[in-house]
């Protein structure tokens, strides 16, 4: 359900109107939250450096909380590194 959106402008969601709903900040990263014009959400993550940002999207109308949690988790992994595997 969650995936990294390609940067191609020929994707099917590129033709939808994205309406910005809000902007949040998490660990110096900016999260731009947008409705995708259908039933889903789009979150664009901008790092402090302004380079190599990424987008997450979902097609679930009530999936914004999970999408934001995924964005925060990716930021945490990027800054803190991968979590150590737990020993059984």
| Beta-strand segment tally | 5
- The topology string of helices and strands comes to EEEEEH
**Overall morphology:** globular
Q: What is the residue-averaged pLDDT?
A: 81
Q: Which regions have little confidence, pLDDT < 50, spanning 5+ residues? A: 1-13
Q: How much helix, percentage-wise, in residues?
A: 10-25%
Largest sheet: 5 strands, antiparallel
Organism: Belnapia arida
Protein name: DUF2470 domain-containing protein
Layout of strands and helices, then pairs:
Layout: E1 3-4, E2 19-26, E3 29-35, E4 41-46, E5 54-58, H1 64-80
Which features does this protein show?
alpha+beta; 88 residues; 5 strands; single chain
Describe the structure.
This protein has 88 residues and is α+β, with helices and mostly antiparallel strands. It has one domain (16-80). 19% of the residues lie in helices and 32% in strands. The protein has one helix spanning 64-80, and strands at 3-4, 19-26, 29-35, 41-46, 54-58. Strands 1-5-4-3-2 form a five-stranded antiparallel sheet, with helices on one face. It starts with a strand and ends in an 8-residue tail after the last helix. Residues 1-13 have low confidence and may be disordered.
Concise account of the structure shown:
With 88 residues, the chain is an alpha+beta fold. The chain has one helix at 64-80; strands at residues 3-4, 19-26, 29-35, 41-46, 54-58.
């Amino acid at each position: 359900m969650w995936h990294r959106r390609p940067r191609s402008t020929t994707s099917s969601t590129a033709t939808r109107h994205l309406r910005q709903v809000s902007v949040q900040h998490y660990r110096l990263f900016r999260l731009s939250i947008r409705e995708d014009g259908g039933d889903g959400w789009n979150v664009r993550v901008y790092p402090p450096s302004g380079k190599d940002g990424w987008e997450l999207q979902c097609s679930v109308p009530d999936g914004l909380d999970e999408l934001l949690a995924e964005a925060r988790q990716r930021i945490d992994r990027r800054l803190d590194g991968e979590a150590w595997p737990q020993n059984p």
